[in-house]
Design brief:
- The protein is α+β, with helices and mostly antiparallel strands and 368 residues long.
- It contains 9 helices and 20 strands.
- The two termini are 33 Å apart.
- This is Spermidine/putrescine import ATP-binding protein PotA.
């Protein structure tokens, strides 16, 4: 049996004469993993969820579930359940009846319903809450009720449409850990939608980064963060310093007037490139030791580090995350290791980008 449970083949979704919400998207989802669809508002991530759930139909292309085409399969016949942003719980029903709702529609025996509901509530740490009214539940508890209602039907895939967005920061962080642990214990596929980069990095086995109706890049959180494929991904995932440069040869790149060793290869000699260095990979040091010489423009204390904004002689801004303090107006040096430099191709056409993205999805461009 193949490990692929969901597959999109050249799927486009377009409403009337508007631009496509999804534009010829292809990808595969494997069993038992935690996937995150990440991107800004309007990028197409919720549309993917709705297509999987059967709430909307593809304009072009095919969607497969367990190798079987599911374009025309109605939502209630699909082995998926959705946890919505507002949880969509019934306020007039208690916790037990909310979780039991789908089982009653299936007309299961009362003894079976009771057993399954109790098992689901125990799984989400809500045993003993069966008779509690929904209005008496906290935000985190309501989310657990919604998840219990989803898992009680024993789906093969659970879809989660920004279910943490209404929670405060502390509870949201706690629920990230709970959701991840729940997915591991269940061993089923979770597909999670968010626009929060930190949330995606913390929870996912694999992330799909979307923009303008296309998957810009897919990979593990480490791959996405350390090896962004283009400026959008580098900018959207975390914070980045991005400057223009030139690839001299393999393992040697030029930017801001200097030549620096790097670990990238496979680009053309003298090719125009963009350089990415993450703020936490820059070390504050003396001007003599620094590979870059900059002047401190501002400094903010962020609790675990200082966020320091600097400018070099060419007025390129450099953002630094450091436990060291630097005073506004100081002239300092910035040091970085070759591994801190990530090189991206610069100035390619849309067609070139699409071809390279296709190659990347097949694993051919990972070493760029």
């Amino acid at each position: 049996m193949t490990n692929t449970i969901i597959e999109f083949k050249n799927v486009t979704k377009q409403y009337d004469n508007d631009s496509p919400v999804l534009d010829h998207v292809s990808f595969e989802i494997e069993r038992g993993k935690f996937y995150t669809l990440l991107g800004p508002s309007g990028c197409g991530k919720t549309t993917i969820l709705r297509l999987i759930a059967g709430f909307t139909e593809a304009s072009v292309g095919d969607i497969y579930f367990d190798g079987k085409k599911m374009n025309d399969v109605p939502a209630n016949k699909r082995q998926v359940n959705t946890v919505f942003q507002d949880y969509a719980l019934f306020p007039h029903l208690n916790v037990f009846e909310n979780v039991a709702f789908g089982l009653r529609i299936k007309k299961l025996k009362e003894s079976v319903i009771k057993q399954k509901v109790q098992e689901a509530l125990t799984f989400v740490n809500l045993a003993g809450y069966e008779n509690r009214e929904i209005r008496e539940m906290s935000g985190g508890q309501r989310q657990r009720v919604a998840i219990a209602r989803a898992i009680v039907n024993e789906p093969e895939v659970i879809l989660l449409d920004e279910p943490l967005s209404a929670l405060d920061l502390k509870l949201r962080t706690e629920m990230q850990y709970e959701l991840r642990e729940l997915q591991r214990r269940l061993g089923i596929t979770f597909i999670f939608v968010t626009h929060d980069q930190e949330e995606a990095l913390a929870m996912s086995d694999e992330i799909f980064v979307l923009n303008r109706g296309k998957i810009q890049q897919s990979g593990t959180p480490i791959d996405i963060y350390d090896e962004p494929i283009n400026r959008f991904v580098a900018d959207f995932i975390g914070e980045s310093n991005i400057v223009e440069g030139r690839m001299i040869e393999d393992y040697l790149v030029e930017f801001v007037g200097g030549r620096f060793e790097c670990v990238d290869q496979g680009l053309n000699p003298n090719e125009a490139v963009e350089i990415v260095i993450r703020p936490e990979d820059l070390e504050i040091t003396t001007k003599e030791r620094g590979k870059l010489k900059v002047k401190v423009d501002s400094q903010l204390f962020r609790g675990v580090h200082y966020e320091i904004s600097c400018y070099d002689e060419d007025q390129n801004e450099w953002l630094v995350h450091s436990t060291k303090k630097a005073n506004v107006g100081d002239e300092i040096g910035l040091y970085f290791d070759p591994e801190a430099i990530h090189v991206m191709r610069f100035g390619e056409s849309e067609a070139d980008f699409d071809r390279r993205l296709e190659a990347y999805d097949h694993g051919d461009a990972h070493e760029q």
